[in-house]
Amino acid sequence: MERDFETVMIEQCAPVLAGLKPAGLFRYETRNRADLARRVAGWTAQLNPKGLQVRVLRGCIATRQYLVYVYRGAKLQTVLDAREGYRQPEDAADCNALLDQLSLRLCCAAEAADFPHEIGVFLGYPLEDVVGFIRHRGKCFTCCGCWKSYGDPAAARQHFDQLAKCTA
Predict the structure, then answer these.
(1) Per residue in 124-153, pLDDT tens?
(2) What phi and psi, each to the nearest 5 degrees, are found at residue 92?
(3) Which of 11, 28, 122, 130 has the fewest CB atoms within 10 Å around its CB?
(4) What are the distances in angstroms from CA 71 to CA 17, 18, 43?
(5) Which own/partner contact pairs does 42-45 have at CB distance under 8 Å and 24+ positions apart?
């Protein structure tokens, strides 16, 4: 059974819509790619005046599963100043070139070992947590909630609680 696009977006991206995170990602399954494209374009048009954009980062026709990315361009650009292997063209005014690179890396990731774990930077996770996850291969974390934290567990729990409250 297909879930309603708007319901999934709100459930998964409430902290982004509320301005607590620069970006969020959710998996959406649909048989109708044209309808998905219309919804993404429609929501981008509606949310753009509020500084939000919606785009599909990855899609698979066979499984009918798509990774939909909701983000605040200005906040994301600030976060991406500490890039993890991504190059921003000198003349680029926004983060779209970096998102294109991320999308390409996601599409090229055939196995879990190839998955671009630096996606955490694009989701607004603290850089030390993203680097810690990559360095320790997902082990030896100090706290686990919305993501694995490698820093101060009390601060991470507080942040996770804030995001959970918003989502609820």
Answers:
(1) 898 899 989 989 988 999 999 999 999 999
(2) -75, 130
(3) 11
(4) 8, 11, 12
(5) 43/6, 43/9
